[in-house]
Amino acid sequence: MLKSEIAPAKINLTLEILGKRQDGYHNIMSLMQTIDLCDYLTFHKNPWLQIITEYHNLPVTDNLPGFDRNNYLVKNLVYKTAEILKNETGYGSGAVIELKKTIPSSAGLGGGSSDAAATLRGLNKLWNLKLSLDDLAEIGAKIGSDVPFFVYGGTCVVEGRGEKVRQIKSIKPKWLLIILLPFDIKDKTKKLYSYVDAKNFTDGKYTNGVIKSICDGEIIVRESLYNAFDLIYSEIFEDYRKWLKEFEDIGIYPLHLTGSGPSIFFISDDESEVLEAAEKISSIINLSIYISRTVP
Fold this sequence. Notes:
Blueprint: E1 3-20, E2 26-46, E3 49-55, H1 77-89, E4 94-101, H2 111-126, H3 133-140, H4 147-152, E5 155-160, E6 164-167, E7 175-180, H5 188-194, H6 205-215, E8 226-227, H7 228-236, H8 238-249, E9 256-257, E10 263-268, H9 271-284, E11 288-293
Parallel strand pairs: 1-8, 3-4
Antiparallel strand pairs: 1-2, 2-4, 2-5, 5-6, 7-10, 7-11, 9-10
């Protein structure tokens, strides 16, 4: 019997860098939220592992990680995740995994990590492994920093390198306009973290402030959202400052990076405000944009 899983994208309502660790990585504190821009995975029993992909509405320039130009599997995260789960559990057979991609890659939206988490959940059911979500998140931490968050989804506080995940009260539904800026940054996350220094460190105050608003049932103020990489982009990419100024000039403000970018988002309680913003952008420039909503 086949199993299926939805793999939602995410935004970072906050992303703070707390300091550098002894292992060379950084401790973060982030408030992450799943959204309804999704990939879709279907799992079928099979003696060996195989991935079948379909791409839907991806940007023309999208260089999907793990496949070369002939669509030959190289290092796709879904395949690697399935192999790791087999090794961790000693499962002896395989699966055919159909992966329908809609989330653009290397965009700060977590598509690859979400696909990995969906693979863990889907194969756990298909192979009847009976692992808990906590078990899957522990395995996911060996695959990628954002994978444990996607095992749970919803509204979560994420700390450490990403392996410490705590679900909190879901935020009230929000509308989002996501804009994929045309930056192609090789080894993006590694490169951007190389620019981080002490002036980019914070103590969790932004995240804790937004958490308090959510728990108190208050409206999240757009200006209270925070991403440490906003400052870094502004310092190293002149075009980033120009884009933000252009959007501000037509009334779309504030905008925040999600993850390490280059996607930025405009958030609102009002669907019509987001639709109007999308129309304004579409009338002046050809960028990949996505209208989305938060999901629990």
